[in-house]
Amino acid sequence: MNTTTVRHAKNAFPSSKKMVRGKSPINKKLTLSILLVFSLGIGPRELPGSATANPYSQQHLTFNADNLRDGDIVFRRGRDLMSQAVLSQGNSTHYSHVGLLLKSQDGLWVIHAFPQEGTHPSGVLKERLEDFSVADNAAEIAVYRVNALSEEERQHIRRYALNQLGKPFDGGFRMQGDARFYCTKLVIFAYQAAGITLVDHRAEIQVAMLEDPVIPPDHLRQFALISLSHIALH
Q1: Are 200 and 3 in contact (CB under 8 A)?
Q2: pLDDT band at 152; cut points 50, 70, 90
Q3: At what angle are helices 183-193 and 151-163 packed, to 10 degrees?
Q4: Please, which residues have CB within 8 angstroms of residue 88's CB and are 6 or more apart in sequence?
Q5: How sure is the predictor about 54, in pLDDT bands with cuts at 50, 70 and 90?
Q6: Which of 109, 145, 147, 171 is the most buried (most CB within 10 A)?
Q7: Which pTM value belongs to this model?
Q8: Mean pLDDT of 162-172
Q9: What are the backbone dihedrals phi and psi of residue 40, each rounded to the nearest 5 degrees, phi first?
């Protein structure tokens, strides 16, 4: 991808009434799966048909910290039912969840917005990268980087993400406001805080029974307005 970094005003997603909404065919089973998970707060391991014994349980991946930077975008292809619902949108959808990488003296972290999963907390969370990537949750992990990102911009992204910790998950998948987040929205807004627009309305899909259009995690790659580099794959 050879496009130039797009740097715009922070409010890249105005009122939904003014949006040019992208369309994507989404079957009823997918819609119902998404709404079941998020409206009832059911965690993937609690859903009917989820695996009771996982041969990948508690296997961890290792990452070279020297190759990673604040603000890198971490994609995850999940193994649970919710992930399969997201992935069932089509063959071009490869990742089902996304977060932001942060580095600190005590290791590598991912800040991401996640729904209720059993006793696991929901909302905007800070989780160790090794736990975010544990093999019973992740079939695959990929790290992408926005090219030509300055250190100042990285710090804006970092501060914004940290300031959202503890905010609730948005089961309505709305792009307006910053009181609640879903995973893709958190990444988009963090970059907007640095004056960078990751995607436009071509990344949106309209899901039945949801008022606002939704931006799936993998559309940050597929519809990126900026140049991204693939840093790591596990």
Answers
A1: no
A2: very high
A3: 130
A4: 27, 29, 30
A5: very low
A6: 109
A7: 0.75
A8: 96
A9: -95, -10
Domain boundaries, the chain: 16-46+67-233
Longest dimension (CA), the chain: 48
The strand pair at 123-128 and 107-114 is best described as antiparallel
Average pLDDT over the chain, rounded to an integer = 77
Q: What is the CA radius of gyration of the chain?
A: 17
CATH class given for the domain over 16-46+67-233: alpha beta
List 230's β-bridge partners, or say none.
144
Residue at 103: amino acid letter: K
The full DSSP string for the chain is --PPPP---S--S--GGG---------HHHHHHHHHHHHHT--GGGSTT--SS-TTTT------GGG--TT-EEEEEE-SHHHHHHHTT-TT----EEEEEEEETTEEEEEEEE--BTTB--EEEEEEHHHHT-TTTEEEEEEEEETT--HHHHHHHHHHHHHTTTPPB-TT---S-SSSB-HHHHHHHHHHHTT-----GGG-B--TT-SS-B--TTHHHHT-SS-EEEEEE-
Lowest average pLDDT, out of 19-23, 66-70, 161-165, goes to 19-23
Structure tokens at 10: 């922070």
Per-residue pLDDT averaged across 129-146, rounded?
Answer: 87
